[in-house]
Design a protein that fits this description.
This protein is of the alpha/beta class. It is built from 9 helices and 5 strands, in the order βααββαβααβαααα.
């Protein structure tokens, strides 16, 4: 089988029912989300998390806004978008995510290796959990990758684990790229801006941002793979 390395990155938002922070009759979700979020600290502000921030970072509970996939060998990328977040009335966000995930399952099933940044803790669990939520069977290779030991990477290379020597120090994708003189992957914003892009209907800007992350990640992976190895 031909080796196919997929460099992937997901962008997420909280489910729209959590955006307003208002309670609705017979809907227990907003109050429960606020209660769970209040027990967590927002690393950026030092304050208790809001429900939208908490849910956007929770693999089972987040809604996928986009999935960027770059084929390392071919050097080509594509971005799958949850159009239900943008085409209000035509398709709900839930249906939009289901469509995205079914397409993602077909694309990802062809990969022999996944490359991520913090994907062991976020992107891979996110994809699997959200597929299960939508009654979609995750590709077998994705499940194997998520269960693989970080100390013996084969199907999944979490570059953050590799470059920090398994958590020896904190390192962001932005800091890694700037240190290696590759450029600034967050020059136009970061993951915390995704919700605002969605609310403003800026689909093209989301696609551009998502694509940029995997392009930078791919360059970082190639440098590390060639000179250090994984």
């Amino acid at each position: 089988m031909k080796d196919t390395t997929a460099v992937i990155d997901c962008e997420t938002v909280a489910p729209p029912w959590a955006w307003s922070g208002e309670d609705h009759e017979n809907d227990w979700r907003p109050a429960a989300a606020r209660e769970m979020a209040a027990k967590r600290t927002d690393r950026q502000t030092g304050e208790p998390m809001t429900a939208p921030v908490y849910l956007a970072l929770l693999p089972p509970g987040a809604v996928i806004a986009s999935l960027a996939v770059l084929g390392h060998e071919a050097g080509q990328h594509r971005v799958l978008v949850n159009d239900g977040l943008f085409e209000r009335g035509a398709m709900g966000y839930d249906q939009g995510e289901s469509v995205l995930l079914r397409r993602a399952a077909g694309v990802l099933s062809k990969a022999t290796r996944f490359v991520t940044w913090n994907g062991r803790r976020f992107d891979l669990p996110l994809l699997i959990h959200r597929m299960v939520v939508h009654h979609i069977k995750p590709p077998r290779n994705l499940v194997i990758a998520a269960r693989e030991s970080k100390y013996r990477p084969n199907v999944h290379v979490d570059l953050m684990d590799q470059m920090t020597f398994y958590g020896g120090f904190a390192l962001s994708l932005r800091a890694a790229c700037l240190s290696y003189r590759l450029g600034d992957p967050k020059a136009q914003g970061d993951g915390s801006d995704v919700a605002e892009l969605v609310r403003a209907g800026r689909r093209d800007d989301l696609v551009e941002y998502a694509a940029g992350d995997v392009v930078y990640l791919d360059q970082l992976y190639e440098r590390w793979r060639e000179l250090v190895g994984v």
